Inverse folding.
């Protein structure tokens, strides 16, 4: 009898705690679900990712269109910069300014390519097909599959543009180590932001202009951090005595960028359930 | 909060606080200062033991009504201080005077050139001066002549006898913008924060009224933000010389916040279905806030800013020393925040009435 009472009391307290937890902060609940895969079905995730890639493979015009977009932009840049004749800066004290221009142009190209590439993730799928997906799997997994797919796509596109810039403009980067870190973190951050914004824009009569209007203010913090990171020179990775206090700018910036990406992914993960419903 | 909207005591408080802040903030004079002195240098070698006639042009000074006007040239070393007292002051008008100094044959310093401060004091106007404004050339340590060490810069009071705002280099009269620009940003932050709170509340309860409140707080916050950015731009033009400064994290933050909430308004405009509109815009509000908060609170800590309190610039704490600024600034903050709240509450009431009328039709 006594034992039974105590278990009831225990259950009550637990219930209270759970209720408090969910009412004050839903985060622990969702985090728990996320980690222990009650909602997160990795099999579904794998299949959805496979579906995205297969779709892209079958409709080759979409990805080839984006790659063509990159190369057309690069060609136009090369022609228009040829008129400016930036090579006069080479070797002079203005050499840094030349790098500035190329790195800024690189991020502009990547930004606009990413918007175009990620915009179609929700906008170009019909309402009925999306509804069909939601009956098959949970919205979280659909969002995550889209995010991972977009991250892969944008990484490939960013590296293609990097290669294209190296091909057309020579060695334009100050420090390749930090620049590659910037590309990886930047592409994943762009993917996270643009996937969510594309979901938002698809609710609103889905036009592409709205996509840029909604996403550019949000992307500016990431771009600011990326611009700091991509202008850094290669530095030898030595660890100072009190590392946390005298952290090198590059590492501090990378951590900030990574944290920002995590915040964006987490926010979109929390908010997507409210978004997908008709 | 719903009760608060229909009460009127805080609206009266807003009016009183704002009237007080505007009237006092614009009418209290700046404390006196010195615009220029001429000549700005003196060579000991050429004129041993001679008189120096110095013309002083003051700002907001009351030379003609002064009771106990004194003037000093204060020479500082790393260790020692040597002070020259003004012998005679000829007053021409309230802002112009001529001070004569009896210059010594040498100064008790090792340096050949000494950079000195010019300072004045009056029982009415308090202490004021021009730092690092006067050069004395041709000093020899072991020069001839007797040094008069008796002069000391003593004054009865450093403060003005009347209420005044501190005079600051570069800022000058624009220090009054502190009662407009800064409280407007605070007000915007508060209103947008309330809007974020109501967006979260809307997603939890799906009550139409919460969405209405969120939108109207965004509208009021945007108005405050635009006023804040315009006053800030005017201030920047006067103090930094440009309407907009590149790479200042606070300016970046301001621009991003305004763009983001304009995008929010545009997003609302492009959805027709009311429920869909409310839900999607609430999601965008929260998502945008989550990704912009790092920009507003972390990046300014990482980079230098031209704003006070950042990157080695003196903060406004230094201006608060005499407490007169604080006496106007805090009421101004409260007044502008309450005014924004009032604007939002009026719009909310209009929208609620419109909804009721629409339902009755």
């Amino acid at each position: 009898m006594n034992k039974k009472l105590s278990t009831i009391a225990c259950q009550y307290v637990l219930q209270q705690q759970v209720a408090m937890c969910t009412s004050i902060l839903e985060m622990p609940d969702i985090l728990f679900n996320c980690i222990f895969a009650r909602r997160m079905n990795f099999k579904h995730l794998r299949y959805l990712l496979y579906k995205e890639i297969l779709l892209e493979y079958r409709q080759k015009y979409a990805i080839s269109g984006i790659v063509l977009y990159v190369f057309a932009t690069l060609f136009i840049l090369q022609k228009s910069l040829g008129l400016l004749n930036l090579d006069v800066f080479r070797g002079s004290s203005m050499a840094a300014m030349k790098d500035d221009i190329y790195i800024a142009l690189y991020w502009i190209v990547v930004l606009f390519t990413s918007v175009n590439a990620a915009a179609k993730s929700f906008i170009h799928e019909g309402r009925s097909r999306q509804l069909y997906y939601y009956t098959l799997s949970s919205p979280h997994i659909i969002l995550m599959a889209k995010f991972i797919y977009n991250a892969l796509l944008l990484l490939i596109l960013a590296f293609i543009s990097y290669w294209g810039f190296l091909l057309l403009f020579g060695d334009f980067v100050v420090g390749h180590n930090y620049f590659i870190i910037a590309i990886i973190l930047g592409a994943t951050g762009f993917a996270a932001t643009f996937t969510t914004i594309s979901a938002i824009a698809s609710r609103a009569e889905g036009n592409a202009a709205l996509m840029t209007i909604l996403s550019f203010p949000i992307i500016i913090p990431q771009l600011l951090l990326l611009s700091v990171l991509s202008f850094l020179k290669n530095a030898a990775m030595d660890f100072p005595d009190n590392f946390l206090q005298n952290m090198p700018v590059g590492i501090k910036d990378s951590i900030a960028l990574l944290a920002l990406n995590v915040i964006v992914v987490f926010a979109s993960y929390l908010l997507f359930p409210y978004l997908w419903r008709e | 909060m719903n009760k608060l909207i229909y009460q009127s005591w805080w609206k009266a408080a807003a009016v009183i606080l704002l009237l007080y802040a505007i009237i006092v903030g614009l009418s209290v004079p700046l404390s006196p200062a010195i615009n220029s002195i001429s000549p700005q240098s003196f060579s000991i070698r050429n004129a041993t033991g001679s008189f120096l006639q110095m013309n002083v042009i003051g700002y907001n000074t009351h030379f003609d009504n002064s009771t106990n006007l004194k003037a000093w040239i204060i020479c500082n070393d790393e260790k020692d201080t040597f002070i020259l007292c003004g012998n005679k002051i000829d007053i021409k008008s309230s802002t112009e005077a001529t001070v004569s100094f009896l210059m010594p044959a040498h100064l008790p310093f090792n340096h050949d050139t000494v950079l000195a401060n010019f300072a004045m004091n009056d029982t009415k106007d308090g202490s004021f001066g021009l730092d690092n404004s006067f050069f004395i050339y041709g000093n020899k340590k072991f020069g001839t002549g007797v040094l008069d060490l008796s002069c000391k810069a003593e004054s009865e009071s450093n403060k003005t006898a009347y209420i005044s705002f501190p005079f600051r280099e570069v800022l000058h009269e624009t220090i009054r913008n502190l009662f407009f620009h800064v409280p407007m940003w605070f007000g915007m932050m508060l209103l947008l924060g309330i809007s974020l709170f109501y967006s979260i509340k809307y997603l939890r309860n799906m009550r139409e009224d919460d969405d209405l409140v969120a939108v109207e707080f965004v509208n009021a916050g945007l108005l405050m933000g635009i006023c804040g950015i315009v006053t800030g731009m005017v201030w920047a033009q006067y103090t930094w010389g440009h309407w907009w400064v590149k790479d200042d994290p606070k300016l970046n933050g301001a621009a991003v916040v305004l763009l983001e909430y304009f995008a929010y308004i545009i997003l609302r405009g492009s959805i027709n279905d009311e429920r869909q509109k409310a839900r999607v815009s609430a999601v965008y509000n929260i998502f945008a806030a989550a990704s912009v908060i790092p920009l507003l609170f972390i990046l300014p800590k990482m980079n230098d800013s031209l704003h006070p309190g950042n990157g080695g610039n003196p903060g406004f704490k230094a201006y608060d020393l005499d407490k007169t600024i604080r006496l106007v600034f805090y009421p101004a903050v409260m007044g502008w925040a309450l005014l924004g709240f009032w604007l939002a509450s009026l719009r909310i009431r209009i929208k609620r009435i419109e909804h009721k009328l629409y339902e009755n039709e």
Notes: Chain A touches chain B at residues 193, 196, 200, 203-205, 207, 210, 213-214, 216-218, 220-222, 224-225, 252-253, 256, 259-260, 263-264, 267-268, 271, 274-275, 277-278 (CB under 8 Å). The CA atoms of residues 248 and 257 of chain A lie 14 Å apart.
